[in-house]
Amino acid sequence: MGGQWRSLALCACVSIAGTYLVTKSLESKQKTSEIKNGVAELIGETPVIRLASLSDATGCEILGKMEMQNPGGSAKDRVALAIIEEAERKGLLRPNSGDMVFEGTSGSTGISIAILCKAKGYEAHIVLPDDTSQEKVELLTNLGAVVHKVRPAGIADSKHYVNYARTAAEAINKDDNDPRRAVFADQFENEANWTAHYEHTGPEIYRQAGGKIDAFVAGAGTGGTISGVAHYLKERLPNLKVVLADPPGSGLYNRVKFGVMFDTREREGTRRRHQVDTLVEGIGINRVTRNFEAGRALVDDAIRVDDAEAVKMAKYIVEHEGLFIGSSSGVNLVAAYKYAKQLGPGHTIVTIICDSGSRHLSKFWRLARDVKPDLDF
Ligand code: PMP
């Protein structure tokens, strides 16, 4: 009898210990899968926020895809990752080899390339016009990028910073004495840009909005976001409207409305020093690019938004939502708000919150000081 009890007690102990060990190992597995394996795994799956103030004012659901929550602070992380991974697949870049990535940009893409190059063992070379703000140059330098400054020139000029980046990468590849490889990221023409948004941003938005979306509103710099998201959403929602939000001086508004790339501010003799005449950074362009053209036929409408409107919206959003947004997000939200008014109550409109206001303190946010935040657009 005593022997039977002893065996029973032993069995119970073994089974409790077994259960304990299995539970512990499951817990540790779950913990491991919650850990992101480096910066690249922090990219994407950004949340969508319902902007209560704009939604209540219009009777629509106005939703913002929080691309500013990517590790590099913008949607460009997705694009830089896609471009680098494609180059790796083709053997044009070898991880941890000191191979080089070149890009001509004064914007968010430079930041995304810089952080991914550090994470993957490459050297980032960012080419900029020499009048780019010191703040931006310092940010890139602190992220470990090599910054090349060139004289401002037109895009047709071989010394334009984008052409300079291409030529510099080609020179490394042609040099038989240099074992490193170099890639020109080419965000305007490289189709890995819009396809990254087709493969990730679009599906995320569709899933997060529960498949119920009436309109997608976005500005275009390269056009990668609007083209990629438009392709994905329209394949599933044929009645969805895609609306371009365009800042002053950009030719895209007329490209969408009338099929011609022209802005009256671009008339001969009136052309300004900068590509587009606005404080808004990251969107608006005056040349035809492959990434915008990839989705142009899917863009149904365009709304112009001026700087004062974008500033007023940004101030309104920080006052009512506690969300500190950058200039292109301000443009997107003005266009989303105007389009919601046009559609009437009961519709869902998704737009992009591109980056944080902290990147726009010295120009855009300085204008906001004396602005009264209201929805009088
Ligand atoms: N907003 C910001 C802040 C950007 O940097 C960019 C990219 N230039 C955009 C919007 C527009 O994105 P896309 O290039 O995909 O058109």
Outline the fold blueprint:
Blueprint: H1 2-34, E1 48-50, H2 52-58, E2 61-66, H3 76-89, E3 100-104, H4 108-120, E4 123-129, H5 134-142, E5 146-150, H6 161-174, E6 182-184, H7 192-208, E7 215-218, H8 224-236, E8 241-246, H9 252-258, H10 290-293, E9 301-304, H11 307-321, H12 327-343, E10 348-353
Helix pairs in contact: 3-4, 3-7, 7-8, 11-12
The protein binds 4'-deoxy-4'-aminopyridoxal-5'-phosphate (PMP).
Primary descriptors:
binds 4'-deoxy-4'-aminopyridoxal-5'-phosphate; 12 helices; four-stranded parallel sheet; six-stranded mixed sheet; alpha/beta; 377 residues; globular
Q: What's a quick, concise take on this entry?
A:
This protein is an alpha/beta fold.
Can you tell me about this structure?
There is one protein chain. Helices cover 43% and strands 13% of the residues. The chain has 377 residues and is an alpha/beta fold. The strands form 2 sheets. The chain has a 6-stranded mixed beta sheet, with helices on both faces. A 4-stranded parallel beta sheet has the order 5-4-3-6, sandwiched between helices. The model is unreliable at 267-273 (pLDDT under 50). The chain binds 4'-deoxy-4'-aminopyridoxal-5'-phosphate. 4'-deoxy-4'-aminopyridoxal-5'-phosphate (PMP) binds at residues 74, 76, 107-108, 219-225, 282-283, 326, 328, 354-355.
